[in-house]
From TrEMBL:
Protein name per Swiss-Prot or TrEMBL: Adhesin transport system outer membrane protein
Pfam families the UniProt entry points to: OEP (PF02321)
Coiled coil residues, start to end: 320-347
Cited Gene3D superfamilies: Outer membrane efflux proteins (OEP)
Entry's family note: Belongs to the outer membrane factor (OMF) (TC 1.B.17) family.
Length: 424
């Protein structure tokens, strides 16, 4: 799918979903369609493709021309300007040009990996922003309910204080809890605005504050259950492997520089005033050239390339190790947080019942204090806050699994589409 087609189809999808809220899939496609990181990575990939053409030019004839002046004992001429032309064709160079081409082609693979890394990173960041907005929307609802319930209790306490059934300290305690609930709501609102701004910049519309859908696709919550990562689709590993190929090509080139280059060469020079006179000079034949001595620079370059290859080998292993580690960490946390969520749901049900009992015991029987009732309300809503946070932490972990396994593009239907002239 061309980038224009992707953007056009995206626009219709986004506007169709405005009433229900912006979905994760629509947000990801909108971000990928415009983001400068993607544009920059695609342009860099194009530049690396041009580097391959530059390297392949070493297989073609090299022709140069100009005008020079100087004394030549073959011609016995004065210091008069002479047109000069020279041409050469490499016949055999022990792999110098081949190594340059290999290096440039590996560079295109580095560029492609950088593009995929930019796309996957943008998907990850956009997904995080959506999850955080969903989290804060859910927390906001709970915080508003908490404030309403504590205000209700505070009103009941105020009536009891007015009637002399409760002390003034009870009234102050209730007012303090109302203020704390307001502060919690304000903090959640601030976080919601922050993540809304973050998402707007990711989507390329600084003024947009589209509501976010509370739903997540079913497949997302199974992302960490997938099998082992396919290293050929993990951009960080792809980049490390391509850099290793670059290092190997550079080592081959450095070793080839020790050996001669055989070429067919010719040159001609003529008197500018009489180009067909006996003052013209022509030469043509085989040329064998080699660097005899360069201050041991060639040997040093070989050592440097050898070390670079060893470093690239280690970097490739490290990329695999880090991706495997992050995947394992996410999968282990999934199990722990899932069990925690079950516990929190049970605790919420228990605390809801406890709160009802404490309310009756405080208002009707007088066997519970106001602090007991307020603490029960606080524990109930804290359990609800914790459950929401745990649920959305699980969503973030699923996004982590997609990112570190290299499956983000597949999951969001981007594989096989064309983006900035590149097929993903």
């Amino acid at each position: 799918m061309a980038i224009g087609t992707l953007a056009a189809s995206l626009a219709g999808t986004v506007y169709a979903q405005e009433s229900a809220g912006l979905s994760l899939e629509a947000a990801v496609r909108q971000a990928v369609a415009w983001h400068p990181n993607i544009v920059s990575a695609a342009a860099t990939l194009d530049a690396r493709g041009a580097d391959v053409d530059v390297a392949r030019a070493g297989y073609l004839p090299q022709i140069s021309a100009g005008v020079g002046t100087g004394y030549d004992n073959r011609l016995g001429s004065s210091w008069r300007p002479r047109p000069q032309v020279s041409a050469s064709q490499m016949l055999y160079d022990f792999g110098k040009v081949r190594s340059a081409v290999d290096y440039a082609q590996a560079g295109t693979r580095v560029g492609r990996a950088d593009l995929l890394l930019a796309i996957d990173g943008l998907i990850h960041d956009t997904g995080y922003a959506i999850v955080e907005l969903q989290r804060n929307a859910a927390l906001h609802d709970i915080a508003e309910e908490q404030l309403a319930r504590i205000r209700e209790i505070s009103g009941l306490v105020a009536d009891r204080v007015a009637k002399g059934a409760s002390t003034r300290s009870d009234g102050l305690q209730a007012e303090s809890r109302v203020a704390a609930a307001k502060a919690t709501l304000a903090q959640i609102d601030a976080e919601q605005r922050r993540w809304g701004s973050n998402l707007a910049f990711l989507l390329g519309d600084e003024k947009a504050r589209a509501p976010v859908s509370a739903d997540m696709p079913d497949w997302l919550m199974r992302s960490c259950a997938a099998g082992l990562a396919d290293w050929s689709t993990v951009p960080a590993v792809m980049r490390a492997d391509a850099q290793r190929e670059q290092a190997a090509a550079q080592l081959h080139r450095s070793r080839a520089d020790r050996l001669p280059t055989v070429s067919l060469a010719g040159d001609a020079a003529a008197d500018i005033g009489s180009p067909f006179s006996d003052r013209s000079a022509y030469s043509f034949g085989l040329s064998v050239s080699s660097n005899i001595f360069g201050g041991n620079a060639t040997r040093a370059r070989v050592r440097s390339a050898d070390y670079s290859l060893a470093a690239a080998d280690a970097a490739s292993r490290q990329a695999r190790n880090e991706a495997s580690q992050r995947l394992a960490e996410a999968r282990q946390q999934i199990g722990s947080l899932t069990r925690l969520l079950d516990t929190l749901n049970l605790r919420e049900a228990d605390m809801a019942e406890t709160g009802q009992l404490y309310r009756a015991q405080y208002l009707e029987m007088g066997t519970r204090t106001l602090v007991d009732l307020l603490n029960a309300e606080q524990e109930l809503h804290q359990a609800r806050f914790d459950a929401v946070n745990t649920e959305h932490d699980l969503r973030r972990l699923q996004l982590d699994c997609l990112y570190y396994s290299g499956r983000s593009r597949d999951a969001f239907g981007l594989t096989g589409t064309r983006l900035r002239g590149v097929t993903l």
